[in-house]
Structures are given as C-alpha cells and as structure tokens.
Amino acid sequence: MNRFMQIFGQRKVWAIPYAVLMAIFIVVPLLLVCWYSFVDENGFTLRYFEKFFLATDSLNTFIYSIGIAMITTIICILIGYPAAYFMANKQFSTPKVMVMLFILPMWINLLLRTLATVALFDFLDFGLGEGALIFGMVYNFLPFMIYPIYNTLQKMDPSLGEAAKDLGATPFRVFTDVVLPLSMPGVYSGIVMVFMPTISTFAVAELLTMNNVKLFGTVIQENINAGLLNYGSALSLILLIIIGLTSFLGGDDSK
Length: 255
Description:
This protein has 255 residues and is an all-alpha fold. The protein is 80% helix and 2% strand.
C-alpha cells in the first residue's frame, strides 16, 4: 500500500496519461504531416511546396481565404469589443447573464448551427453566397473574439481609470489612453482565434455557399480525399507555419 502511494502520490505520474494522449493525437499526426510534405516515393522533395506557389488555383484560393478571414475578423472586433466592454462593466450590464447568452449557442455543434443558418436564409429567401458565408463565420466565431477581450477587461484594475479621471481625463480619453491599450492582448488573442480557423474551415463554406465558394481548408480536404496526401499535407503544413509565426510574433508584441 505504501509502495502504491509512493508511486501514484507523485504529480508527474498523473501527467503520463496526458503525455500519451498528446503524443498519439498531436505529435504523431504532426510528424506524419511533415513526412508526407517532404517525402514521396522518390525520396526527399520540395516539389509540393513549389506546386502550391506555381498553381494559381490554390494560391488564389489562399489569398481569397485571407480576405474572407480579414473581413470576418474585423466585423467580429467591431461587434465583439463593445459587447465585451459592456459585459465587463457592471454599471452597464449583468455580466453573468450576458456571458451565459453568448455561451448557450456554443453548446450546439458547429455544423448544426451552420445548418440552422442555412435554414434561416432559406426562410427569409436570402441567397446563399459570400454574404451568407461571412454572416455564418461571424455568427460561429464571434464568441471567440468576445471571451478573450472580456477576460482582459475584467482583470483590469479599475483604479487606473479612476486615476486618469482624477487627472482630468474625459471618459473618451480614459478609454483611448487606458482601457484600449491595456485590452490589446485580449484583442490579439481574439484575432488569432477567429482569423486562423476562418481560413482553415471548409464545412461552413460548403454549406453556406452550396459549395460554390472554396476556402483554403476546402482545398486541403479535397486533395486529401482524392488521395493526394503529399500535396494536402504540404498545404496543411503551410497553414500550420503561418499560424505558428502569427502566434509567435503576436506573443512578442503583447508582452
């Protein structure tokens, strides 16, 4: 019994299951993506990356996806920041109720929410296309913009704003000179959590545009489903590198 307690009483032992799961579901898939990206039947190669930059279809889809992601992210900021600000400011709202209202839709599967959006557009007799796609993207990813900003604003020391007011700052100056700069780490986190998934998603684009609009995630899916694992893996790795660079550079800026 004492031997059992000595073994399982150590904290590092309880980390073993998590390490195993991470190795199986994160490390191994990433290694396979890297392997298929650089190795084919002829050995080491970079031709799949060359194919991406030379193939106008994939490159144009990538650029188009960035445009859709930027529009979605900007709209999420314009809607999400005021919502997070009011949620974090008790004099304007009841935060717990508003947080629950934003959480409730997230309890439903992404595909079900997207299908409901399709049904809504059909009921209102609105056509499916780019407009429906952007609406669906904003609807699905808006909470990922609100929560980081809300958490940052909620943890902000209110005495900073009070000190600015005591020094003669107007409410607008307090917001622009104190609240907004201090909330930028939350804004950046929201941008990363909205921008990158928007580029890589494919189900939302297929449902809300009747498969007439392709995003970069759709191109990756089509290549993998067609058995072109090498090219699909190379596209996935390109997207992964962009996500990593964005997170790394943004992390340095937010310190």
